[in-house]
Every structure is written in C-alpha cells, then in structure tokens.
Design brief:
2 copies of one chain form a homodimer. The first copy, chain A, is mostly helical and 191 residues long. Chain A contains 10 helices and 2 strands, in the order αββααααααααα. In chain A, strands 1-2 form a two-stranded antiparallel ribbon. In chain A, helix 7 packs antiparallel against helix 9. In chain A, 46% of the residues are buried. The mean pLDDT of chain A is 95. At the A-B interface, helix 1, helix 2, helix 3 and helix 7 of A face helix 1, helix 2, helix 3 and helix 7 of B.
Chain lengths: 191, 191
Amino acid sequence: MAFLIEADRLKTVLRASTLADGSRRENSGEHSWHLALYAMVLADQAAPGVDIGRVIRMLILHDLVEIDVGDVPIHSGDGTAHASAAVQAAEAAAAARIFGLLPPDQGAELLALWQEFEAAETPDAIFAKALDRVQPVMQNLASGGGTWVTYGVTSEQLDSRVGTRVARGAPALWDWVRARTRAFFDDRPER
Amino acid sequence: MAFLIEADRLKTVLRASTLADGSRRENSGEHSWHLALYAMVLADQAAPGVDIGRVIRMLILHDLVEIDVGDVPIHSGDGTAHASAAVQAAEAAAAARIFGLLPPDQGAELLALWQEFEAAETPDAIFAKALDRVQPVMQNLASGGGTWVTYGVTSEQLDSRVGTRVARGAPALWDWVRARTRAFFDDRPER
C-alpha cells in the first residue's frame, strides 16, 4: 500500500505532450493508462510471440521513475537529453527507491520488468517501446503539432528519433502513422 | 485509432475523489491506470483462479463510458445514484457508441469485457470491482477524508456501500483497510 500511495504522485508529473484536444499537458499516469489501452487495441500489430499481458504490465509501470526524475521529453536537448547517462542513472536510482517500497520478491519482479522495458531488447519490450513512442505522435497529430512545434522538430528528426523505434516494434503501424506525419509536415510552411 | 483518440477524452472526466495529496480531483484516465497497478501489486489478494491479466484489461476499459455519462460518485444521491436504472441505461448506450468505434470483432470483445465487469458475477469481475471500490478509500484516507467529508458519509455507510464489494472480492484486503477506516471515523467528532 505504501507503494500504491507513492505511485499516486505519477499523476502530478507533467509531460511535454498535451491531451488530444490541446487543452492541457498530459500527465504520466494518464499517459500510462492510454498506452495500456493502445496495447490492448493494437495487439495485432505486435510480432508473433509477443505476450500482450506482459506488454501491458510494462507500460503500466514504465514511467514510475518519473516520480523522482520527471519527464524528459524525447525532443528536448535537441533529441539528446532523453537517453543521456545522467538521466539513465537518475532513473535507475529512482527505480531502486520506488520498487523498494514493495515486499522484496515483488519489488525485484517489477524492477526486472522495468529494466527489461528500458533495455528494449526482448520482443515484449520492443513492442512496448513502439507504443510509448507512437502515442505522443498521435496526440501531436490530433492537437495540431504539439511538441513538434514546441521543439521545432522536422519530419526527418521525427523519423530518426521516433519512427525507428515505432517501426522496430510495429512496422505496419509506423507505415500508417508516417503517411499522416508526412502529410502534416508537408502542409506546414518551410521553417 | 479513432477509438484510441476518442478514449483520450477520459482524461478530462473528473471524479469526486482527489489525488492522495488532496491537491486536485482525480480524472478517470489516471484512476484507471492506478487500478491496473493495484491489480498487479495486489494479485495475491484475489481468489484462486482469478486471471489477473483479464482483471487488468477490465480495469483499463471499465470507465470509458464516462466519456459520455460522466462519473457518478458512489456516495452521491445518498448512495443511490451510482446504480440507478437511468445511469445504467446511459452507460449501456455509451458503451455501444464508444466500443462501436472499433472493428466489429474487437468492439464486441471489449464490450463483452465491460459488460462482464459491470455485471460483477465472474471471479475476475468481482475482484476488479473490489479494487475499483478500495482505491478511493485509500485516496480518502491519504487526503484526510475526501469524499466522505464532501458527502457526509458515516463509517456504517462506507461499510455497506463500499466494504461489502471490497470484502466480496478481496476479504483480507478489506479487513486491513477497514481497521484504518474505523480508526479514521473514530477520530472524528460526532456529526
């Protein structure tokens, strides 16, 4: 219960992306819920052998470390901040603290699931990462550009920072989405 | 994708309960995320044979109908509004519309899962309902009373409106929580 009450704080961590209607910034708790729903609905986009139940669990807990570290937007720091060594070390420390609130066996199990997500090497984690990357794209398309406008992102930067991850876990999904992002960027005046 | 974008609106549906720190009202999207985490962490409280993966899926989608109907607090209308025939009919219509945004086979599957949750007759649904009822209790305890103060709820009303549902799906959990709710109400002056 101490863990579950502490987890409540994820609802106060604000992301760079907004709701689809652009009315306010999204928080990491509701973002995690939305991703779990993505996994349920887009399960047919996963590679054979992917365990959607494990993917959903990964997505439920994948952002808990942000309670300590905050959200580091994918396009911030010209696309380099998100995966920096400093951020990764801070997130590892946060994971140790937060999952350490659980009984030891359970804490170790959830920590391992988070580490698997972060490493993005297993088929389950690769699909989970694809969904984590594609949902903000859909939010930005819905809200008229969102963080692409905020951070001055180009279509090519979107492909390299986001598209490669989505395509790795859900190639047909990225084909579908990329047609829409290309249309979005093509319709914008030259920057 | 039309369904997933529509689902985003659940993040704008406000519940009566607040965050654990009392800073603002909780929305139904982040509430659904928190419940999925409850299911992961409290799986050992479920009856034998409960499929936690199905419970998590039920909890992810259980409140989507609130996009059309809004949240009807459990203690509103002196405890009668939540399960009224009018609310149930409105929620059924909302489910038909919202799950109708999905491809027909998938929409039927998710609608059936929502209906199973609402009926609260299968072991999976009974456990999911128990978590849906106990999370606001924990939020209220953390925030100093929350909706119990708002609606003038007594310890006995809490037992009958909430405790019976929690105890049905997770009896040991309710024993643990009830000791804390009793202590909370005992410490309050007579109303």
